[in-house]
Specification:
Layout: E1 50-54, E2 60-61, E3 67-68, E4 73-77, E5 82-83, E6 89-91, E7 98-109, E8 116-123, E9 126-134, E10 140-151, E11 156-163, E12 167-168, E13 177-182
C-alpha cells in the first residue's frame, strides 16, 4: 500500500472528484474529524417512514370496551403507510424494518366523574404498551403514551382507548393525535 500526502485534491476535469470504485471501502480512522462546509448528501439517514394524524371529529368510546381510535386526518405521511380511512393504523412498508417511535394522545370532555381510562399501543393486534389515567370531576381529560418498537415489514401499529363510563373523544387538531417515525439506526 502506498501513501499519498497532500493538502488539496481537485478533479482534473469537471466538478466531481471520485474516491474508489464500486465495492471499495474508504476507511476513516478513529480520531479523524470530517469538516464539511458544503452540502452533505448520502450521510446518516432520514426518520422515514413518518406520519402524523389526528381526529377531525368526535368518536364515541363505549363503556368498558377497548375501541380503536380513528385518527382520520393526516398532517403528513411520507410513505403512505398510515391508513386514515378504514384500518386507522400504521403498517411498516417493505424494506423499512427497524426501530420506530410512536406517540398517541386521546382527549375527551366530561360532565361527570370519570374512572380510569387506558390508551393502548398495539402491534399486530396485541397490546405492547399502555398508559392509564384516573380523572375526577368535570373537565377535559388527556391521556398520552409513547414507546419504541422493533418492527418488521408488514407489522402494524394501532391505538385503542378504554374507559369504564364511556365518552366521546374531542375531535380537532391538537386534541387526539397519533404519530410515528423510523429511528435512524
Amino acid at each position: 500500500m502506498s501513501k499519498l500526502e497532500t493538502n488539496q485534491v481537485d478533479p482534473a476535469t469537471g466538478t466531481t472528484l471520485t474516491l474508489g470504485t464500486s465495492g471499495d471501502t474508504i476507511a476513516i480512522p478513529s480520531g479523524v474529524t470530517i469538516a464539511n462546509s458544503g452540502t452533505d448528501t448520502g450521510f446518516g439517514g432520514t426518520n422515514t417512514p413518518a406520519f402524523s394524524a389526528y381526529q377531525s371529529s368526535a368518536q364515541t368510546i363505549s363503556s368498558g370496551t377497548a375501541t380503536k381510535v380513528q385518527y382520520n386526518t393526516e398532517h403528513y405521511d411520507s410513505d403512505n403507510a398510515y391508513d386514515n380511512s378504514s384500518n386507522y393504523r400504521f403498517t411498516v412498508p417493505s424494506g423499512k424494518a427497524g426501530k420506530y417511535f410512536f406517540s398517541a394522545i386521546g382527549s375527551w370532555g366530561t360532565t361527570s366523574n370519570e374512572n380510569a381510562a387506558t390508551i393502548d399501543l398495539r402491534v399486530n393486534g396485541t397490546v405492547k404498551w399502555f398508559n392509564r389515567v384516573r380523572g375526577s370531576g368535570t373537565a377535559n381529560i388527556l391521556i398520552t403514551t409513547s414507546a419504541v418498537f422493533d418492527l418488521s415489514a408488514s407489522d402494524y401499529v394501532e391505538v385503542f382507548l378504554t374507559n369504564a363510563t364511556g365518552f366521546d373523544t374531542l375531535g380537532g387538531d391538537g386534541y387526539s393525535n397519533f404519530l410515528g417515525y423510523k429511528l435512524i439506526g
